[in-house]
Amino acid sequence: MTISAQVRQTLASLKGVQATLETFASSEENQEAKAILRRNTQRINHVVRDMEKRLSVLEFEEPQYKGF
Amino acid sequence: MPEWLNILLRSIGLFFLTLLLVRLIGKRQTSRLTFFDLITGIVTGVMAAAVSLNLIKDLANGLIALAVWTVFPALIYVLSIKYKTVRDIVQGKETVLINHGKVLEDKLLEARLTPEDLLSRLRKKNVFNFADVEFAVLEPTGEVSTLLKKDKQPLTAKTLGINVGQESVPQTVMLDGIIMDEPLTAMGLNRRWLHTELEKVGVAPENVFIGQVDSVGQLYLDLFDDTIQVPKPKTKELAYATMKKCQADCELYALGTKQPEAKKMYEKSSEILSEVIQELEPLLKR
To answer: Contacts of residue B242 in chain A, CB cutoff 8 Å?
Structure first.
C-alpha cells in the first residue's frame, strides 16, 4: 500500500469517528457531555482538513496512484 | 343491653375512633420509631382494647384518657418541629459511641449498651473489626451509624482520581414486545428508528422483553428467547479504538515523512487527537 492510500484510509476512519461522535452529540441529553462531544468533533474536523490538504499533495506527487 | 352487644358496639366505635386518632398523631414512619413513639403507641392500643372489652365501665373516662394520649403526642410533635429543646427531650439525642476510633465507655453506659451489643450492631453494619470505625453514633431510633476510616471506605472514582462521564437515565422503550411511544419521543426517536435498530441485530419486535436506550442512543435488549445472544452495542468502544488507531497512524506518518512541514502537520494532528482521546475517554469507555 502506498503512503497516499494509507493516509486515505486513516482519513476515512477519522471521518467515521467524527460522524459517530456527532450522532452521539445529537442524541445526548446531558448538556455538559453534549458540549464535550461537540467540541471534540470540531477538533477532529481540524485534523481531517489538514490531512486532506496533505493527501492532495501526496496525490500530486504520486499521480499514478490517484484515486486508489 | 346484653354484654356482648355492648362490647360489639364499643369495639366498632373504638376501631374507627382509634383509626382517626392515629391519623391525628401524624404519619411519622414506623420504621423510625423512637422510644417515646413506642410508649404512646402501646398506651393508646392498650387503652382502646380495655375500653372496647368493657374493662373500664365508664365509657367517658376511657375516651378522655384515650384523647389525652393521642392529642398530647400530636401536640408535642408539632412543638418539637418548632423547638429544638422539645425535640431533644421527646426524640432523644444521638449518642456518640466511637470517636476518632476510640470507644467511649461512659457514653456506652449512658446508652445502656453492653460491649457485646455494640459489636453486634457494628457487625450488622458489616463492620467486623471495631478498629475500622472512625466514628459511630447511636441514633435516637436505636440504630448505630458508622463512618469507616478513610482507608477502609469503599473506592470511588473520586478517590482514584478518575474522570467519569455523566450518564443520563436510560429510557425504557420496549416492554413485553410492546413499543412505548412516549419514552421514544422523549429521546427524540421514533418507531422507524427502533425497527431499523432491531433489524440491525436481527431480532423480531415481538421477541423483545425489555428494550432500553441509553443517553447516546444505543439500544440494549433482553429477549424472551434466552438462547439467542444479542450483541451488545459496541459503537462507543469502536469509536474510541478507531480514534486511538488514527492517532497512532499520524505518529507513524510523522516518523515516515521526510518533509519537515508535513512532519509538523502530522505531529500536530497526533497531538490534537491524543487530547481528544483524553477528553472523550470518560464518555466513551465507562
So the answer is: 13-14, 16-17
- List pLDDT tens digits, range A37-51: 899 999 999 899 988
Residues of A in contact with B238 (CB under 8 A): 20
Nine cell digits for residue B173: 422503550
Nearest-Cα residue of chain A relative to residue B249: A10
Report the C-alpha gap between B276 and B38 in whole angstroms: 61
Between residues 203 and 232 of chain B, which touch chain A (CB distance below 8 Å)? 215-217
> Helix H segments across chain A?
3-27, 31-61
Q: Say which amino acid occupies B61.
A: N
pLDDT at A68: 52
Average pLDDT, whole number, for chain A?
85
What sign does the CA torsion over B194, B198, B201, B205 have? positive
3-class secondary structure, B147? strand
Nearest CA in chain A to B269: A47
**Best residue in A1, A8, A28, A60 to probe B by mutation, most B CBs within 10 Å?**
A28
Tell me, yes or no, whether A67 lies in a domain.
no
Count up the domains in chain A and report the number. 1
pLDDT in tens, B232-251: 878 888 888 999 999 999 99
Whether B160 is covered by a domain: the verdict is no
Domain enclosing residue B144, as ranges = 95-152
Is residue A40 in some structural domain?
yes
Residues of A in contact with B276 (CB under 8 A): 40, 43-44
Residue B79 and residue B101 in one domain = no
Q: Tell if the CB–CB gap between A50 and B235 is shorter than 8 Å.
A: no
In a domain, B22, yes or no: yes
d(CA B211, CA B190): 14
3-state secondary structure at position B111: coil
* Total count of domains within chain B: 4
